[in-house]
Amino acid sequence: MPKFSWEGKARTGGVQKGVMEAPNVESVIAKLRSQDIVPIEGKIKEKTGFNLSMDVQIPGLGPKVTDKDLVIFTRQFATMIDAGLPLVQCLEILSTETENRTFCTVLASVKESVEAGSTFADALAKHPKVFDALYVNMVAAGEVGGILDTILTRLVVTIEKSVRLKKQVKGAMVYPAVVTTVAVAVVTVLLIFVIPQFAKMFKDMGASLPALTQWVLRASDWLTDWGWAYILGVVGAIFGVFRAMKANPKSEMVLHRFYLAIPVLGDVIRKSAVASFTRILGTMVASGVPILDGLDITARVAGNRVVEEEIMRVRQAISEGKTMVEPLRESKVFPQMVVQMIGVGEQTGALDAMLQKIADFYEEEVDDAVSALTAMLEPMIMIFLSVVAGGIVMSMYLPIFSLAAVITG
User: Fold this and answer.
1) What distance in Å separates the CA atoms of residue 128 and residue 245, rounded to the nearest whole number?
2) Which distant-in-sequence residues (6+ apart) come within 8 Å of 173 by Cβ?
């Protein structure tokens, strides 16, 4: 269908511009008049040429749309809608003021779709990499209920809290991973570049070497000769695991079960999953999204296949006429306290408020769990580094001490 650029005068007296898909000029004029916009004669022209939109944008070009970009856009958009500005005008203003060029292109495409007659939610759904199922369905509920500004404000809070939770869990994982990587790198450098110098010296001296020193020298020889194969093997194993996860959902399920079974860290992941589930579902229920749709969307954005499976099991039970509590009682992911509070919320008709209270509680629990994990890992990692580095140093100096004792004797 061809696209037409247009200019017209709004009922308030201002001039508006835009692009609209329509079969002909007459359809454009009719659609503008239905929106209380008087077309300016001679300003409706068919657009020609190639238009680079987000859907055909070459991958890798342009910056990625971040959660921060989405939060800023949603907050500003909610303010504009609350002030009474038309939807198309809000999108036009924000698309020109957004610093992220990729996001600017997306918003321009959304504006064109809305001008062509699509609902705002349908226009957002055309860009799933930017606006996920949660965002689209919340906006759809807001459009139907006439409370789009309220829904957008709730979305901002939900996105901000979800981002904060992700950062906390990632922080809990990144710290030990970084320190362990540095420790392995230091030990590798010692074994490949430093220990061989000592080995040559010991060979020239003809000294009798202790068992610890012999073990370290053998490790150094092996790493020097086969270190490249070891690195390639580790990289290949990691790549193979990720390929297997993408090719076989069962492999991903096994890995995600392993995440939840890790001591201490698994508890952080479980609590963050509970907080995210209750926060998102509570927001959707409060916004008027049907419970079955809310559970379906919440499962898709869970981030863990085990949690996703549990939520879908709850959804299936509700579709069969059961309450949420019945399947949750059998769950190994959701604690009994959560189950009991959800049961109270169902009975009193205040499920959305109860879910938000659970989310607040478990977000604080994640804070405490991350702090405890960091406090526990710091001394453990320091002890590990001290033992490894100290053992290597000791293994190199033991023969020297033995030689010194022989010479002194």
Assistant:
1) 22
2) 265
